[in-house]
Records
---
Amino acid sequence: MGVVTIRILLVDDNELVRAGLRAVLAAQPDFEVVGEAGDGAGVLALVRSLRPDVVAMDVRMPRVDGIQATRDLLAHLDQPPKILIITTFENDEYVYEALRVGAHGFLLKRARPAEITDAVRTLATGDSLLFPAKLRALAERFGKTARSDAVARAKLTDREADVLRAMARGLNNAEIAAELYLGTETVKSHVSALLAKLSARDRTQAVIAAYESGFVAPG
């Protein structure tokens, strides 16, 4: 079986940042940088034509920022790509808002090459949370003003609640299965069920809902 290629679109108004990311990502045998954009305005059209698996996108851009571009992708595509927000400052309300509206994870622009490639692979596989400690810190700082009762309304089973707590700690499906003495396929079923009940697109949104509902303490 050949290498599975992860197709990546880069979106950043800084050409040097895009060049640096391209150099890091293109060096990986399982990555292909399929295109670039300098603003969020044209991202939807590019995604439709290039069909990337991951969009690595700046959160702050002069015309259409990463938050609005994320909204556009999720609103207009039945199968949107994974969205990796690229940011200069990790404690940024823009980053938290991008995650709340549906971005799958975020990465600092000063990240080491190994962190960048690991982040893309983590999002592409989709069975674990990217940087759970950093997400927890963002929820601690910005989630207090967005309290919800999403988890209470979801009426999770006890096992689904256990799985959500484990997800919030950043465990992947295999790790959750080992901790809860379940089969991996059973964990996948629980994850799918709790995402549906929470109306969450992915693990990141589910964990944000858990923090904002007080179901999981961010501290």
---
Amino acid sequence: MSARAAPEVRWRCCAFDALAVAELDAIYRARQQVFVIEQGCAYLDADGADPQCWHLTAWSAAQAEPLAYARVVAPGVKYPEASIGRVITSSAARGTGLGRELVRRAVAEAEALFPGAGIRISAQAHLQRFYGAFGFVAVGGEYMEDGIPHIEMLRPPATIT
């Protein structure tokens, strides 16, 4: 099966206060579409951490919601390290490579915003190899979160040479 061509996107990464109300609405709709509707997880998505995060989005003129999204979380909000969470790729962008580009950019943003902090994530267990390709290693065993097996993973701080 061949990958579909990635749609043309405009990337934006900004602090919560820099998001327009319409952008925030579209981000919340996209997160709910993936996590609540597609994955069937009933949980409080707007968990109070968003105002302390940076928001990375891939926008397309073809749809109102972002094609891809991740939030970059400051150290001390979720973990002692920086974190990446709420990682989604819309159904319209799946199979195009946009998910890999999203994670690559999210890691780069986290390292630029919080140099030397490392990055800790709570990944869905079936994505362990995917995140491993970005330098994340499993720390601990699997656990259930919202009815889905997860695993904590850590990307150690980048070594400056």
---
Amino acid sequence: MNKISTSQSMIPTQPLISSEFFPWSTKLIENWEIIAAEARSIIRHREAVPPLKDISPDHARIAGDGNWRSFFLIGYGYELPENCARAPRTAELVREIPDLNSAFFSILEPGAVIPRHRGVSRGLVTSHLGLIVPAEHQKCTMLVEDTAVHWQAGQWLFFDDSYVHEVHNDTEDRRVILLIQTKRPMRLLGRMANDLMLWGIRRSPFVQDARRNLDRWEEAFKKAERNEAA
């Protein structure tokens, strides 16, 4: 599939990609402070936001000991209505993104390390919108192939996560981003092959197990909200 995505791609297939190929990104930058405010309201209940390893056992090798958490709005096309209601403006904005696959707040704790790994497919493009960034942002690093990049509040990073990448948060601060995955712009053959592959992934245990695990975590978040209101 990666060979097909490479040959059919209508945008560069290098590790880092310019945001100019994704016009929808401008509107989210214009609203990034609203998105960041909604993210802050979510992480008030940090312990009720599931570690990635508890959502997806397939990510256990890279997900660490709970220091990488994910608050899903949409995952592989499946919307989580309760979570979207908790971040309504963010949900409204991401629903407008063409060819959206997933959207979630990615929370990385101080000292966290995500070891070298590759994403599912070159048929997807991953993007990060910086929301809450460590003061020493140069010490919070993602290495994509041989290039080090750093998050900044209100700015995008677009990359092809089928290339090897890793993350180190060597600071004492939390890093929070809005992570977006979209289908790679491709010619007809590539789009057809990519849609077929994603259809299969959506119905596989990789996604369906994660959906069931997220359902179990919903009660934990409701309990945290009730305790706050009490």
---
Amino acid sequence: MSNATLFCICSLVWGSTWYAVSWQLGTVDAMWSVAYRFLSGAVLLWFICCFRGGLTGFTLRQHLRFFFQGTFLCGISYWLVYESEKFISSGLSALICTGILYSNVVIARFWLGHAVKRSVLIGATLGSAGVLMVFFPHISQIDSNTLQLKGLALALGAALMFSMGSVSCEVNQKDGLSVAPVTVFAMFYGGLEMGAMALLRGVPPTFDFSPGYLVSLIYLVTFGSVVAMTSYIALIQRMGSDRTAYVDIIYPIIALLISTVLEGHQWTPVSVLGVAVILLGNLLAMGNRFDRRRSGTSC
């Protein structure tokens, strides 16, 4: 599957999950919702791997890395996003998460010794400016009260944690690891950790059998976790965490387009211009290196 296809899958699917997540908030504690999502995703992908040949053995060091990736990609980072939206709008939370573009570059520079690509920095700057324009109506409504500052801090923490998990995935390629088994263990460890943390907080497992919760959970497990997370990790191993992070610029725009159809979101001339700026930044950041190499993503 080409890089362009994987990029579109991540952007479109994660853009749609913003609406699906809204059906998860309420009766079930956010930690348990995240746990159900990723544990179910791990089991589903494990069955797929078994059908295609099974999981190969991994070293203790590799499992520790998978645990780290699960914590930062599939566990606490998602929980922090859920929590942040109790205090700030999802649009503002999405804007803060676009900081992954910059943190990935910085972390990869100091952790893995990667050179900082000028095209990525220019594209990231334009992309972030575009998102700022798109979400300006939401941002202009914020004030400096304590709860909103708490929401900002939670969203920033989520972005930094997701960035660390993303950069760590680049090491998998050096070990020659296939994407699917890595994703299985990352989701399993992330979901298991969320369940354990919920129990330590004294929050017993609960479940919502309403159609809205069940359908949204199935969608988040199948597409948001198995399909999109596998595609995202594959992109990191192919293109690097810096350019892959541009997914986090595109999917908030997809989310707004869906909100326009389903929730009546209103666009302004500034927000439309912002989308154009984002696409320009995308073009500059990816350039002709956004190739169509094929790489194995099988088990």
